[in-house]
């Protein structure tokens, strides 16, 4: 299990990963609970999910948010942690291009970060959100939720009542074009360190780990509930590979954008999300540009926000500005498909046909569906 250090927005990021040898294997990114309440990538639940996804055939990554373990920086109330997750995902895309599927799996605070990442990164095609803190953070930005996924919550959660999680699930399930599954783990608390006796009795591995701490037994019980994922989840919930149908309802999100910013205590993440949503919808582009500039004033090198601003500039026909931002993204992540394709289109429109074709061909080599995905964002030669 390689343990590596990546450059991140706040310094180094401590990462562990397990790869699959098969080309095009799916990828999974696992995000740990709140850093200020003991959350690390070595929590038992994070550890079990990490290995579960690997057993299911995924190249799997977990990492420590800033200020945890050997990751540099200090807790940033979500904005910086979202940038950390985006940086790790960028590294995954560079090292393992063309995955067949990309999961983001978050636990508690990590679930909140993971769902924000889902909104910003079109390559994420499915999510698992465990004990989402629906009573502590606002999830109104999931309007619409761009991908199908699975929510999991304990019936004895005393930190986030299960009823609040149910309301979140009901709201998202009402959206069209996606499928949402919801699993309630009987007797489990917020940390899945306490399950009922019947839950433990369903665990085939429990007898072999009786000498381990009780939390580990409980987590194996939780892990067992996911054993049906290949049949129940991968096939049934796999969304269409073409991005455009997932974007149909983005215009509806704009009506709530001011509320999202007002109630989300995360200026960087909220403004970056709004810039991306408005850019895709092609509305309020001046405000979208202002949102991007405000976010970048706080995180000047955030690749996702730079790419969102490039999209907005492209739709405003400010092609030189778009080219500058695409260049900045590709300087950090030279093999990022969406930036390569976008820059190629911009170059062609500026008269550099050869350079544009080279970038577009490079993007198509990384992902055969590149043209369809980018058309969904309104970018075409």
Describe this structure in words.
This protein is 47% helix and 12% strand. The chain has 381 residues and is of the alpha/beta class. It has 2 domains: 3-239, Rossmann fold (3-Layer(aba) Sandwich); 246-376, Serine Threonine Protein Phosphatase 5, Tetratricopeptide repeat, CATH 1.25.40. It has an 8-stranded mixed β-sheet with strand order 1-2-4-3-5-6-7-8, sandwiched between helices. The longest helix is centred in the first third of the chain and has 17 residues, at 79-95.
Topology:
Layout: E1 3-8, E2 11-18, E3 27-31, H1 44-55, E4 59-63, H2 79-95, E5 102-107, H3 109-120, E6 126-130, E7 149-154, H4 162-173, E8 180-185, H5 197-201, H6 214-224, H7 229-235, H8 250-254, H9 257-263, H10 267-281, H11 285-298, H12 303-315, H13 319-332, H14 337-349, H15 353-366, H16 370-376
Parallel strand pairs: 3-4, 3-5, 5-6, 6-7, 7-8
Antiparallel strand pairs: 1-2, 2-4
Measured as a percent range, the helix fraction is 40-55%
CATH homologous superfamily (4th level) name of the largest domain: Alpha/Beta hydrolase fold, catalytic domain
Low-pLDDT runs of 5+ residues are 194-260, 262-266
Q: In what range is the share of β-strand residues?
A: 5-15%
CATH architecture of the largest domain: 3-Layer(aba) Sandwich
Distance between the termini: 42 Å
Tell me the number of strands.
8
Helices, by number, come to 16
CATH class of the largest domain: Alpha Beta
> Largest beta sheet, briefly?
8 strands, mixed
Query: What class, by secondary structure content?
Result: alpha/beta
Rg, Å, rounded: 20 Å
CA-based shape? globular
How are the strands ordered across the major sheet? Answer: 1-2-4-3-5-6-7-8
As for the number of domains, it is: 2
Order of helices and strands: EEEHEHEHEEHEHHHHHHHHHHHH
The name of the CATH topology of the largest domain is Rossmann fold
């Amino acid at each position: 299990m390689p343990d590596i250090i990546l450059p991140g927005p706040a310094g180094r990021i401590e990462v562990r990963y397990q790869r699959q040898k098969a080309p095009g294997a799916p990828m999974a990114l696992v995000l740990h609970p709140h850093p200020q309440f003991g959350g690390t990538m070595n929590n038992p639940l994070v550890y079990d999910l990490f290995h579960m996804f690997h057993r299911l055939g995924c190249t799997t990554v977990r990492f420590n948010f800033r200020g945890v373990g050997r990751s540099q920086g200090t807790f940033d109330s979500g904005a910086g942690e979202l940038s950390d997750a985006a940086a790790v995902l960028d590294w995954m895309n560079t090292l393992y291009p063309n995955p067949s599927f990309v999961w983001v799996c978050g636990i508690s605070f990590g679930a909140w970060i993971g769902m924000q990442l889902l909104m910003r990164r079109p390559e994420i095609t499915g999510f698992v959100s465990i004990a989402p803190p629906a009573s502590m953070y606002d999830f109104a930005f999931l309007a619409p939720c761009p991908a199908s996924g699975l929510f999991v919550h304990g019936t004895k959660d005393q930190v986030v009542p299960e009823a609040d999680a149910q309301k979140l699930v009901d709201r998202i399930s009402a959206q069209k074009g996606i499928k949402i599954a919801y699993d309630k783990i009987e007797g489990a608390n917020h940390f899945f360190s306490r399950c009922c006796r019947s839950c433990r009795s369903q665990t085939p591995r429990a007898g072999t780990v009786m000498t381990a701490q009780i939390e580990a037994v409980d987590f194996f019980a939780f892990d067992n509930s996911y054993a049906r994922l290949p049949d129940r989840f991968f096939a049934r919930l796999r969304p269409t590979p073409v991005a455009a149908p997932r974007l149909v309802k983005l215009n509806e999100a704009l009506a709530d954008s001011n509320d999202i910013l007002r109630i989300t205590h995360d200026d960087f993440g909220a403004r970056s999300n709004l810039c991306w949503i408005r850019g895709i919808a092609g509305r309020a582009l001046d405000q979208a540009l202002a949102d991007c500039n405000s976010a970048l004033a706080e995180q000047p090198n955030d690749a996702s926000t730079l790419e969102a601003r490039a999209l907005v500039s492209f739709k405003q026909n400010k092609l030189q500005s778009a080219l500058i931002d695409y260049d900045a993204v590709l300087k950090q992540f030279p093999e990022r498909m969406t930036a390569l394709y976008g820059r190629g289109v911009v170059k062609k429109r500026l008269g550099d046909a050869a350079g544009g074709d080279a970038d577009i061909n490079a993007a198509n080599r990384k992902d055969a569906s590149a043209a369809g995905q980018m058309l969904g964002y309104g970018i075409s030669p």
